[in-house]
């Protein structure tokens, strides 16, 4: 079994004296997400892991290029995290979501209880080996890989699944843990309801007489066009979430889907969120409600990019009515949705451990690990 680095031991928040009295968990649910640096000292290693990941950013001489880019980018990104309180809140929110989800699941799915969540971030602690080590110590036999990205992209969920596959070759070569996968949930009614509720709450902050003129700007992290053109599911699944939310809201306001957080010089999917804000402002739409649609908790791209960076650009352009709907974070409606997704999955997982959609790789995918991952989890 691979050794657990000492630095990782502090993430075993669940192995407290409290938990010594808890019964052995029957079902382990691994919440997989990107992760973020908890403080400024973690920024460099976060970026190094991120730029080393060929599933996210394929680079020539990947290892070397990652070192150079991470070092160069660290001061700028440190400054962004400093402006949002020193670190990413993703771990705090994911822990809270996991704990709340466990409680709901134990009630609504007693046959698979007790449930316990584990966290496997792709680029920050706790990393996949830390989750697997904890699961092994708990004696988990039944495990669910539950992506926390509602919409599937090879660059996000695909990368996390490939990493889980690689790590399991080392951590569980005898395949003692039985796995199944929740790879997307972009139109789950609970997700759609939770986002719709946050939009309604956001709209209520505008005066009643002008409320129906507010443009709802759904903003998702963009993707490089190279990935889009390989056939990545993400753009159409994000659009499907947007449509489901607007249908529930009976299309009460105008809306657009826009894309944020482009990095580097190559072409990315647009329109860019900041350009859209300014463009709509010029056309007389002063009131705009930003809605993060592809990430379920706050992170640097909501707290810094949307709130601070784009907020300032908008003010400078004379746009006074730009606001943002709250992220889902620990909203109980959203937590119920998480639990419902897992419960429904567990009912079907013995016969279908992976979804039909996950079985089909992108038409343009040339990465053999993607096929090995699917073959591994489809047993
Ligand atoms: C659905 C969400 C995300 C997709 C899709 C996504 C794709 C993607 N990202 C990069 C490059 C970077 N992303 C960075 C940070 C970052 N990305 C997401 C989400 C998605 N990324 C989040 C939530 C975060 C921030 C985490 C936090 O701490 O709050 C960064 C690091 C920051 C920076 O250097 O600007 C990079 C780089 C690519 C290339 C990509 C698709 C291929
Ligand atoms: Fe990103
Ligand atoms: Fe792939």
From TrEMBL:
GO MF assignments: ferrochelatase activity
Superkingdom of the source species: Eukaryota
Reactions catalysed, as given in the entry: heme b + 2 H(+) = protoporphyrin IX + Fe(2+)
Xref: PROSITE patterns: FERROCHELATASE
Pfam families named in the record: Ferrochelatase
Keyword GTP-binding set for record: no
Topology of this chain in the membrane: Peripheral membrane protein
Gene3D superfamilies xref list: 3.40.50.1400
Native species: Podila minutissima
Listed GO biological process terms: heme biosynthetic process
Pathway: Porphyrin-containing compound metabolism; protoheme biosynthesis; protoheme from protoporphyrin-IX: step 1/1
Cross-referenced SUPFAM superfamilies: Chelatase
GO cellular component terms, A-Z: mitochondrial inner membrane
Protein name: Ferrochelatase
Intracellular or extracellular location(s): Mitochondrion inner membrane
UniProt enzyme class: lyase
EC number: 4.98.1.1
Keyword Amino-acid biosynthesis found: no
Keyword terms, alphabetized: Heme biosynthesis, Iron, Lyase, Membrane, Mitochondrion, Mitochondrion inner membrane, Porphyrin biosynthesis, Transit peptide
Stated family: Belongs to the ferrochelatase family.
Function of the protein: Catalyzes the ferrous insertion into protoporphyrin IX.
PANTHER family, alphabetized: FERROCHELATASE, FERROCHELATASE, MITOCHONDRIAL
